[in-house]
Every structure is written in C-alpha cells, then in structure tokens.
C-alpha cells in the first residue's frame, strides 16, 4: 500500500468531504505513481504506509487555531505555523491556500515524494491533513529558519555564519541532493532549490525542504519536457527556455545557491550598479580576471581560507555551466567540496546566464507558447516563481 492509497482510502470513506479540485489533483498525481510503478520501485513502498493522516481538529489544537502568533512563514502556496503535536513534538504546519489549484497538485506530489524518506539533509514529513477542502502538510520543526531569512537577511537573525558553518551547509545541501538524484529510485529532481527552501536546524545542519515541485524520474530517462516551475534566478537555461527538466537543472540551482552562500548575497540585487547586479555574471567577470576572492562575503573578514573559498566559487561556476552535460553530478560536487576530488582538471567556461529573464517584471510567469504573461493573483505572494502552461510530457532519449 502506498501513501497515495492511504489518501484514496480516506477519500472513499468520506466522499462528500472531497472537492472536485481535490479529485482532479488526485488524478494528476496518479501520473507520478504510474511512472513510479512502471519503474518497479519497491524500496520505499513499505515506508510510505507510515504517512500519518492528521485530523483538522488535531492541527487546530496544535497551532492554537492557526493563531497568527504562531505563524512562522508564508510561501507561494500558503502559510506555515509552528505547532505542538499531541505527542509533544514540535511541527511546522503548512496550510495550502484553498484557491490555488497549483497548490493541490503540489500537495499530493509532496506527500508521495517525501513519505518515508529519511536523510540528515532533508526535512522530515510527519503527515498531512486532507479533510474537506483543507490541505495541510505537517513537517518536523526546524529551529533556525531558512537561509533566505538568516544568511541573506530577509528577517532579523543573530546567527554568525562562519566559514566553517558555510562549508557545512554547502556540503550538507550537496549530500541531500546527491541522495535525491542518485540514491532514491526513481531519482527525484527537486526543481526549486533556493535559499528559502534550505532550513537550518539548531546545529546549522541544512535541511532541504519544499518538495512540492519535485518530479519523479524513471531511471531510463535523463530529461523530460514539462511545464516550467521554479524560481527566477535559479532556473537553468535549458529548463527555463525549453522546459527540458533533468537533474542538471537542480545542479544549476545548487551552483547559484553555492555562490550565494559564499558571497552572502542574493543572486539578483537590483539596487547594485548594473555590472554587479547579477551574481552569476559578476562571478564570471571576476573569475576571468582571477579576482574571485573579491566575491567572498566581507562579513567573514579574515575568517576564511582563500583557496578553499575560491574553490567553492569555481564549483558554483562549474555547476552553472550552460551545457547541462558540463555540470558535474551531485556526488562529484560533494567530492569537489570536501576536497576528495581535485578541481584542477575541470574546464570552466562561461556559465548559462538568464539575466534577461530576471529583468522581466517580477509578477509575471513564463509560458512555453506565448512568452511572458501576467501571473494568476492566487499565487501573487510567490513573487518570483514561474510557471508555464501545461505541455504534454513528451519523453526524450538519454542525451546528457
Ligand atoms: N519545517 C519547517 N520548520 C521551520 N520553519 C519552516 C519549515 N518549513 C517552512 N518554514 C518556514 O516557513 C517559510 C515559508 O515556507 P514555504 O516553503 O511555504 O515558502 P518559501 O520557501 O518561503 O517560498 P516558496 O513558496 O516560493 O517555496 C520558510 O521560509 C521557513 O521560514
Ligand atoms: Mg519553500
């Protein structure tokens, strides 16, 4: 029995409680299950039985009726509350907004993908609630918020990000991604690696969160054509422009993230002079001038190893190469970061830069047929995320 069967059982026992949107989303989510089943995946099935279905009342109690005082964040699909569950454990309760059809689909995807997956660098999914039109995900609470809010300063933070802490975060995220890409069967492409989806626990161990956009990848394929979903600034060119999704798209996003962690700045900062605005462009200019060290976060003062910091920045450039096949696999990235593999022989060319896409009005979405369009207001909170209209998922041969 899979997690999905669990959801269906619940549905069958109380049909009046289910909306047609939810039923449609179940059908859509079935596509993922089919890919998975046809691939003979049995490794995770036994664990998937353990996804807990919470009642709405239970989650109301846990969050003091979703008290704004307990609200810890807001994303494109809804609000996140801190709560204490009946067993005493702390949880992050993510309530998906009911208007967002996109959210329903992501909701189911996330449950299917995350159930039973355990890794030090992945957020733990405790369970979900699908009562009436409520769609709620319940995660293990991660103490130190996201990299976006702490390192990049969306909110107040007193965390000191020493060089050692930064290397631990980079290596942890790389390990989490290598696990999803290379150990889980079928592989999982996350599709939305970015600073707000990297949470930090009390020891600053990074946890990759938000698998709502993730896709299961049969072993026999390296990329599929799909609608584009992700966040501007992190999108690989081949994915943003042609909808070609592969693990290499995540590796590109990881490269951008790596540059952000070492430099302590966002991938795009429109307040800076033009030549400094886009982190990736800046990194390439400095690399060509052999002055990469100027990109390292000045907040580190002298607390860093120059060679190591420049090596990290070069790995960031390597991960963002224009040609997907030039980007190293995540297990290789882990070795490069830890120093178990030499970077010397790796050729670094100009990265794939999408700055022209980044200059587009932030409240727009990209569609494969008609270019940039106004985004649906139901997801307007999600300022820089992009979606395309659905394209039928045609499948390509292994080519990279
Ligand atoms: N498991 C968790 N533990 C602690 N805080 C969390 C947890 N999950 C999410 N949060 C907090 O809630 C915030 C919102 O998360 P959410 O994933 O909904 O949106 P986002 O990542 O900011 O944006 P997007 O919707 O574009 O992914 C996070 O930035 C984080 O601060
Ligand atoms: Mg998120």
From TrEMBL:
Any one GO MF annotation of this record: protein serine/threonine kinase activity
Residue stretches spanning the membrane: none
Top-level lineage group: Eukaryota
Keyword match Iron: no
Key word Transmembrane present: no
Biased composition (Polar residues): 377-400
Domain Protein kinase as annotated: residue spans: 66-347
Listed InterPro entries: CR_Ser/Thr_kinase (IPR052059), Kinase-like_dom_sf (IPR011009), Prot_kinase_dom (IPR000719), Protein_kinase_ATP_BS (IPR017441), Ser/Thr_kinase_AS (IPR008271)
Region (Disordered): 365-400
Pfam families in the cross-refs: Pkinase (PF00069)
CDD domains: STKc_IRAK (cd14066)
Keywords: ATP-binding, Kinase, Nucleotide-binding, Serine/threonine-protein kinase, Transferase
Positions with a binding annotation for ATP: 94
Family statement drawn from the similarity comment of this UniProt entry: Belongs to the protein kinase superfamily.
The protein's name in its UniProt record: Protein kinase superfamily protein
Protein's organism: Forsythia ovata
